[in-house]
Amino acid sequence: MYHESLYNMALEAIYNGDFSYRIPKEKAVFPGEQAAIETINKMLEIMQEQRQSIEMASWEKLTRILTHEIMNSLAPIVSLSDTFMEDVNIQHSDLYEGIKAIHDTSEGLISFVDGYRKFSSLQKPKTEVINIKNFLNNIVSLGIIPDSISVEINVEPENMVLTVDPNLIRQVITNIMKNAIEAGATRLLLYAFKYEGAPGRIRISNNGPSISNEEQKEIFVPFFTTKKAGNGIGLSLCRQIMNICGGSISILPTGTNGWNTNFQIEI
Length: 267
Fold this sequence. Notes:
Blueprint: H1 2-15, H2 31-86, H3 88-91, H4 95-119, E1 128-131, H5 132-140, E2 150-156, E3 161-164, H6 166-183, E4 187-193, E5 201-206, H7 213-216, H8 234-244, E6 248-251, E7 261-266
Parallel strand pairs: 2-4
Antiparallel strand pairs: 1-3, 4-5, 5-7, 6-7
Helix pairs in contact: 1-2, 2-4, 6-8
C-alpha cells in the first residue's frame, strides 16, 4: 500500500504538470518494485525534458518572428525622425521635441527587441572539466552579492567535477542569485551534489518570498515577470541556456529542505 500511494502521488504530479517529482527509493523493496520506481522516475525525467524542449522551441520561433517584424517597423521610424531632426526649420520649431521623443522611444524599443533577439542566438557550449566547489566559490567572489547577504556553499562529494561550459552555467547561477537578492532574500545556499549514475545537480536556494504555485507555472515563459521593471527574459534565458547545454532547470516545491525558493539545474 505504501508504494501504491507513491505511484498515485506520481500520477497526481503528472496531471498537475509537475514533472520534477521523484519517487524516493526505499531499501526494503522487492526487486520488481525498485525497477518500477526507477522506471517511473526515468519517465518523469524524460517527460520533463520533452516538455521543456517543446516549450522552448515554440517560444524561440515566436521570438524570432516578433523581433523581425518589430525591427522592420521601427527602423524606418528612426530613419525618418533622424531626417526631420536634421532639418533646420524643424530644429527651431515646436515639432522638434515631439519628433525627438518619437526618435528616442523608437531607438529604445530597438535596443529592447535586440535583447530578445539574443535569446534565440546563444553561442554553442564550449565545455571543459571543472571543479564545482572552486567554480561556485569563484562565482561568489565576483562581487555581485552584497556583504549583507549570507552565502553558504555545500558540495557533495567535495571533489565533484562536471563537464560544462563555465561561462553559460555561471550566467544561469548568477541570474538566479540576482533575482533572489532583488526579491529580498538575505540567505543563499549553493548546493551541488551528484549520486552515482545520476546527473550532476546544482541547487540555488534562498529565504526570500515564496513563489506562488501559479507563478511557478509561468516563470520560465518569455516576457512573464512579477517585477515592476522586469522584462521577463532572465529565467527563460536560463532555461534556453540549460537546453542548449543538454541539461535542465526547474523550480522545486516551496519549502524543499526548509528553503522558501529552490531552483535546480541538472547537468
